[in-house]
Amino acid sequence: MPHAIRLHATGGPEVLRYEQVEVGEPGPGQARVRHSHIAVNFIDIYIRSGRYPLPLPNGLGSDAVGVVEAVGPGVTEVRPGDRVGYLLGPQGAYADVRLMPAEVLIPLPDGVADSTASTLMMKGMTAQYLFRQVYPLHGGETILYHAAAGGVGLIACQWARALGVTLIGTVSTEAKAEVARANGCAHTIVTGGMTPADMAREIPRRVREITGGQGVPVVYDSVGADTLMASLDSLQVRGTLVSNGTTSGPVQIDTTLLAVKGSIWLTRPAMIHYATPRSHMLAMADELFGHVLAGRIRSEPSQSFPLAEAAQAHRALESRQTTGATVLLP
C-alpha cells in the first residue's frame, strides 16, 4: 500500500501523520504519478500551522517530480512513462503516488535529472516569475534580495548572474553568505542576531553604500514583517517592493507610508496568476530549463529526508538549519 503524509489538525510538525492511502485508477483528465522526489517549501509550514487554512483532513505539499504510471480518458498532455514535475494542483505531494490533473504536469527534458528538477518546480519557477514577469530584469540593475541562501534564493543568485544583474543578498550567517556568493550573489549582508530595528538601519545603510547613495529599483522580500522597513528604505524613489513571502509574519502597512518613502509600488504576487494558463506555465519552464541545460543554473537538493520523516524536515526548515532546497524521498 502507498503512503502519504496527512493533516487531521493544524499545529506544529507533530501533526504530520504518515498513513497508508488508497490510490485508484485515473479518471477523465487525470494521470497517476509515482514520485521520486518531493519538494519541501515554506508555504507547507504555513498550511500545516493553519496560517493558510485548508479543509481537514487533507494532504500536504504542492510540488514533486516522478513518472506517469497511467492516464485517464481524454488525456493528451502526457503519456505513461513520461517524466514529469508539477507545482500547481491540489495539495498532497507528500505521497508515494497520487492522482493529478494532467493539465498541470510539466514534461521534464532529457538532461535534467529528477533530483535537479525537484528543486526547480516551485523554487525555480518562482525565480522565473519574480525576475521575468513581476518586475522584469533586463541586465545592469542592482537589486536587493532577502534570504539569498534559501531554496529560491540560490537559484535567484544564479539567474541574476546570468542576466548581468548585481544582486545584494541578505543571509542569516557568514556560512550562508559564502554559499550565496558562490552562486552569484555580488554582495552579502549578514543579518544574524539583528533585530528588525537593527535591520531597518543597517541594511539600507549597506545598500546605499553599495549603490553610491542611490538605493535599488526593486527589492524582493520573502521575509515579511521583520524586513519591511529595511526594504522600503533601501528603495529608490518610485521603486518597487515585491513582497513574495512572510516567513517572519505577514506585512501590514499603512499605504500613506508608501508615499512617504518615495511613492513606492508594492505588489504581493501569487504563482497561480503568472503560471496559468498552461501555455504560460510551459513557457516559464522552457526558459528555466534552458538555463539549466546551458549550465547557467545548477541546482541539487542540499538536504533530504525520508517521506516518513517529514516532520523533521519541517523542524529543520523552520529553525533555519537548512541552506538551499530540501526534499523528501518516498
From TrEMBL:
It holds the Pfam family ADH_N. CDD domains: QOR2. Residues 11-328 form the Enoyl reductase (ER) domain. It comes from the Bacteria. InterPro entries: ADH-like_C, ADH-like_N, ER, GroES-like_sf, NAD(P)-bd_dom_sf, QOR-like, Quin_OxRdtase/zeta-crystal_CS. Keywords: NADP, Oxidoreductase. PANTHER family: QUINONE OXIDOREDUCTASE PIG3-RELATED, QUINONE OXIDOREDUCTASE-RELATED. This is Quinone oxidoreductase. It comes from Ramlibacter aquaticus.
